[in-house]
Design brief:
By secondary structure, the protein is α+β, with helices and mostly antiparallel strands. It has 2 helices and 4 strands.
Length: about 60
């Protein structure tokens, strides 16, 4: 599984990092960024939870 964050949509609420800190971080401005090229299988459930929790739907699985 691969995930991306649409930087034009993200408003920095941080749900991604709260749900999947192994996959997401916040950059120096507080916006989400993806830490991995491919989400390891053991973190896929957390990454999907982050995707579903994002209030602006800025995270996409590709």
């Amino acid at each position: 599984m691969k995930v991306v964050i649409d930087a034009a949509v993200c408003d920095g609420k941080g749900y991604c990092k709260r749900f999947a800190p192994e996959v997401f971080a916040l950059d120096e401005w507080g916006y989400g960024e993806v830490l991995v090229d491919e989400v390891p299988p053991e973190y896929e459930a957390n990454a999907r939870a982050a995707l579903e929790a994002c209030p602006l739907q800025a995270i996409k699985a590709v």
